[in-house]
Write a structure and sequence with these properties.
The complex is a heterodimer of chains A (132) and B (385). Chain A has 2 helices and 8 strands. With 132 residues, chain A is mostly beta strands. Chain A has a 5-stranded antiparallel beta sheet with strand order 6-5-4-7-8. In chain A, a hairpin with a 4-residue loop joins strand 5 and strand 6. The longest helix of chain A has 6 residues, at 3-8. Chain A is globular and about 45 Å long. By secondary structure, chain B is α/β, with parallel strands linked by helices. Chain B has a domain at 4-118 and 209-223: Thiolase/Chalcone synthase (Peroxisomal Thiolase, Chain A, domain 1, 3-Layer(aba) Sandwich), CATH 3.40.47. The chains are: A mainly beta (132), B alpha/beta (385).
Chain lengths: 132, 385
């Protein structure tokens, strides 16, 4: 069971909460304990916009146990508009349509289920940005 | 610090050893090394292993292997640094002897990846990445390397097929190494037809899941009895980098490789030109290219070009993966770093299988990488020929 980790990560998985450094203004996601740029420990929570661009991606055909029934799926490195890069699955898009540089936005979707009668885990994924 | 020598090497063939326990593999490799060193006793044992807890439900390998091998009571610990566990254990053995605290120690790498079937090994290997922000979101170890390779292909605008030369070279060399997992060559056509694991990495870009064990006996140079077969350890340097790929400033630069290589060359007092051959960490084709660049041998684009021209073959300018590398010999993760050093010692002694023997090698560099580059151990060895 993955409950403590899931609870601990709820601010990240639902709201993309990272940190911003009070000393040098550097943004981090995932949140950090020490600023990777200036080594300050004065970090505040910061909620990211969820807008970004695909930096790289792959289509996964062989995977770990939790995602056995999900293949093939797409995972990507995404550059958020505030600066940090994160790792996430892409959703609502066909693998053939994904391109490096493509604008994407965060949504909350299902990750995996713990057995058939266990909890369902949700969190951030990214989909192609819907233009206004 | 004392001058340090390797006086004994041992290995078991890299295979799917369904009929042998992790204990049995480890003890065999250790006995081979002791026999080669012509010694009966050790006073320290440093065991490199990544996944015995996850796959064999067995931790505490230091004490366990020591007593199974007939040395209950000695100092013995397990060292873990993902796929770099083996060379990290070697580092501890070298420090123990160099400091003068130990007289004769063993560095031993052992891994049994086929103990559980199917996805268990993938689950285990993924533990080298960030559990909260990579693995639990569906990232595999292959997927991480695949994102690096796709970005490389994008930035350098090169064809994927160019990478095939690395696994083809590894298989060519492995054919003559009786301890290698694979004893056959592969063709460009086979590479092009191989099934995708995580696009653009296919099966033939990937080193195989395997079982194995390798060991070294390490003593102070002053205690060496047979000068001809002894190999001097000039350097063994560890560097680290961010574990998660998304935290690296430059995805295509292996900062840990650069730092570890620079430190090792400085400690040894050598330059790149002095290195006779390079046992690199070719877990995936892309890692060979990025390692050669970050280690400072030549740019990634040059590496991709020159591999097609035989630059890295046994008779080439800088032979790599001389006994098959991770791709051809196999990658029993926690043992890999010690297979690399065992193979380098064979080369420096002039005892490599004839078609694989590098001509008059003087200095060997071995490099063992954990995860996608977060732990890097670079060693430089000197032969006595």
């Amino acid at each position: 069971m993955d409950i403590p980790r899931y609870w601990r990560l709820k601010d990240q998985r639902y709201r993309l909460q990272g940190t911003v450094c009070s000393s040098c203004g550097h943004y981090s996601f995932p949140p950090r304990i020490v600023c990777p740029r200036c080594k300050s420990k004065a970090l505040r929570p910061y909620e990211f916009s969820g807008k970004g661009k695909v930096f790289s991606f792959t289509v996964v055909y062989q995977t770990i146990e939790r995602y056995q029934d999900k293949v093939p799926y797409i995972v990507a490195l995404i550059d958020l508009e505030e600066g940090p890069r994160l790792t996430a699955q892409l959703t609502d898009v066909d693998a053939g349509d994904v391109q490096i540089g493509m604008p994407v936005e965060m949504v909350v979707r299902k990750y995996y289920e713990e057995n058939t009668d266990g909890p369902i885990f949700y969190g951030y994924k990214f989909r192609p940005a819907i233009p206004f | 610090m004392k001058k340090v020598a390797i006086i004994g090497i041992g290995q078991v063939p890299v295979r799917e050893h369904w009929d042998q326990s992790i204990k049995a593999l480890a003890v065999q490799a250790l006995f081979h090394a002791l026999e080669d060193a012509n010694r009966d006793e050790i006073d320290g044992l440093y065991v490199g292993n990544m996944l015995s807890g996850r796959l064999s439900e067995q931790e505490h390998l230091g004490a366990l292997i020591a007593e199974q091998a007939g040395f209950p009571g000695i100092e013995a610990v397990k060292i873990e640094a993902a796929c770099a566990s083996g060379a990290a254990a070697f580092r501890q053995a070298v420090l123990a002897v160099a400091s003068g605290r130990k007289k004769c120690v063993a560095a031993l790498g052992v891994e049994k990846l086929t103990e559980l079937s199917g996805w268990h090994a993938s689950d285990g290997l993924a533990m080298a990445a960030d559990a909260d922000f990579e693995t639990s979101l569906g990232l595999t170890f292959v997927a991480l390397n695949a994102m690096v390779m796709r970005r490389f292909i994008f930035e350098h605008n090169v064809k994927r097929e160019l990478f095939a030369a690395f696994p083809m070279l590894a298989h060519r060399n492995a054919r003559y190494n009786p301890n290698a997992m694979f004893q056959h060559e592969i063709s460009l056509n086979q590479y092009q037809q191989a099934k995708m694991i995580a696009d653009p990495i296919n099966l033939l870009d990937s080193s195989p899941i395997a079982d194995g064990a390798a060991a070294l006996i390490v003593v102070p140079w002053d205690d060496v009895r047979d000068q001809h077969s002894a190999v001097e350890v000039l350097a063994c340097e560890v560097a680290t980098d961010y574990v998660a790929l998304h935290d690296r400033t430059n995805l295509l630069h292996l900062a840990g490789v650069e730092q570890s290589t620079k430190s090792a060359l400085k400690t040894a007092g050598l330059s790149h030109r002095d290195i006779s051959f390079f046992e690199l960490h070719d877990a995936f084709s892309i890692m060979s290219v990025l390692s050669l660049e970050a280690a400072g041998f030549l740019s990634a684009e040059e590496a991709l070009k020159k591999v097609q021209e035989g630059y890295f073959d046994i008779g080439g300018t800088l032979p790599i993966a001389t006994m098959g590398g991770l791709k051809g010999r196999g990658h029993p993760v926690g043992a890999t770093g010690l297979y690399q050093i065992v193979e380098a010692v064979l080369q420096l002694r002039g005892k490599a299988p004839t078609p694989l023997q590098v001509a008059e090698p003087r200095f060997a560099m071995t490099q063992n990488i954990g995860g996608t580059g977060a732990t890097v151990v670079t060693s430089i060895l000197k032969g006595q020929m």
